[in-house]
């Protein structure tokens, strides 16, 4: 593949198998807390098919306050899947290797119960964002990736803005790209934060390591405040990004909006789904 030529292809997910429209559930955390089943039913009615979870309770093996197997049954009844979960690895960053390994085993158990394909590391505490900490993070990501891959699942790292902060000519994302094993640690690219804070475009990142960016977070950026906004209301032109899906290695994507809702979180996922289905999803077929 010529890196300068974006290709629309299904080769990375199988012929004639379009990607499911996904939602990161953190977007609607307020609604989920009030009515889990009713909210998920509404999500399915909007055309979302795949979900990314957050908030796993490791000791009790629960998601959103219910047993993992009960949550899986709820998803099955609604014909929803979950391909990835965000897990709280940051809590174990400064703990022992044994503590981290035990937590990873718990995450593996939960993810397998739900039928997830990927376990994702989504966050770093502010005190863990210096370059030396990113070098330590790379080591930990490789260790966790090996453990997760041996269990038959994929492992990925999710970025925010702080990975792109310049620290004397280098940034955290440079370290992670260089020091993590691409066969063990895949990347979930948050396209909003790339457009917000990176000196490189998504396409330029994809060209650095084609095939490694297996998941995307898709959300828009307010034209004035640069805060989150509903898809189609902001400044990010996804028609220039989506054609690089094959180059990136895209397998799953999740629409997300962390806050700044025009009306409510549920109205925002409705509006974003409508815009995405009409204007952007055809680019992934």
TrEMBL record:
Organism per entry: Dawidia cretensis
Coiled-coil annotated spans: none
Leader sequence segment: none
Top-rank taxon: Bacteria
Official protein name in the record: Sugar phosphate isomerase/epimerase
Start and end residues of each Xylose isomerase-like TIM barrel domain: 40-242
Gene Ontology molecular function: isomerase activity
Keywords, comma-separated and alphabetical: Isomerase
Keyword Iron: no
InterPro entries from the UniProt entry: IolE/XylAMocC-like (IPR050312), Xyl_isomerase-like_sf (IPR036237), Xyl_isomerase-like_TIM-brl (IPR013022)
Pfam families xref list: AP_endonuc_2
